[in-house]
């Protein structure tokens, strides 16, 4: 009886450890799936206008050369993706080539 308790406790610990280890992967997968469904942010959006968002950074006025959503700290798209979620515009996807005044360099 005591051995059964130890075995089930060990199994429970394995499940907890495995679940904890896999949780970030599940979260990443869910965010990626949600990003695929999110509508693209348009320049007509009031918040986009306020933050001077443009889908093409080369057309932005005041953008630091080379800055774009893909290398912004707030961009959450997968590397190489054409678009992805942005923490500044929840529920919307921004173009990887886009830019807005909230741009902040992604740490290396
Ligand atoms: S905060 Fe960064 S990722 Fe979001 S729209 Fe502005 S430049 Fe792009």
Q: What ligand species are in this complex? A: iron/sulfur cluster
Percentage of residues assigned to helices? 25-40%
User: Structural class of the helices, strands and pairings?
Assistant: alpha+beta
What is the number of helical segments per DSSP (H or I, 4+ residues)? 2
| CATH architecture verdict of the largest domain | Irregular
Order of helices and strands: HHEE
Strand order of the largest sheet: 1-2
| Terminal Cα span | 54 Å
User: Main β-sheet, in a few words?
Assistant: 2 strands, antiparallel
| Beta-strand percent range | 5-15%
CATH fold group of the largest domain: High-Potential Iron-Sulfur Protein, Chain A
CATH homolog superfamily of the largest domain: High potential iron-sulphur protein
Q: What does this protein structure show overall?
A:
It is a single chain. With 108 residues, the protein is α+β, with helices and mostly antiparallel strands. The chain has two helices and two strands. The chain has helices at residues 2-37, 46-50, and strands at 83-86, 89-95. Strands 1-2 form a two-stranded antiparallel ribbon. A hairpin with a 2-residue loop joins β1 and β2 (89-95). The protein starts with a helix and ends in a 13-residue tail after the last strand. The structure holds iron/sulfur cluster (SF4). Residues 53, 69, 72, 74-75, 86, 88, 94, 98-100, 102-103 line the site of iron/sulfur cluster.
């Amino acid at each position: 009886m005591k051995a059964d308790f130890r075995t089930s406790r060990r199994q429970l610990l394995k499940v907890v450890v495995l679940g904890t280890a896999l949780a970030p992967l599940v979260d990443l997968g869910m965010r990626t799936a949600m990003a695929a469904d999110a509508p693209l942010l348009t320049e007509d959006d009031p918040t986009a206008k306020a933050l001077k968002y443009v889908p093409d950074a080369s057309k932005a006025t005041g953008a630091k050369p080379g800055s774009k959503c893909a290398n912004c700290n707030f961009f959450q798209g997968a590397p190489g993706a054409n678009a992805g979620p942005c923490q500044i515009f929840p529920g919307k996807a921004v173009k990887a080539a886009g830019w807005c005044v909230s741009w902040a360099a992604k740490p290396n």
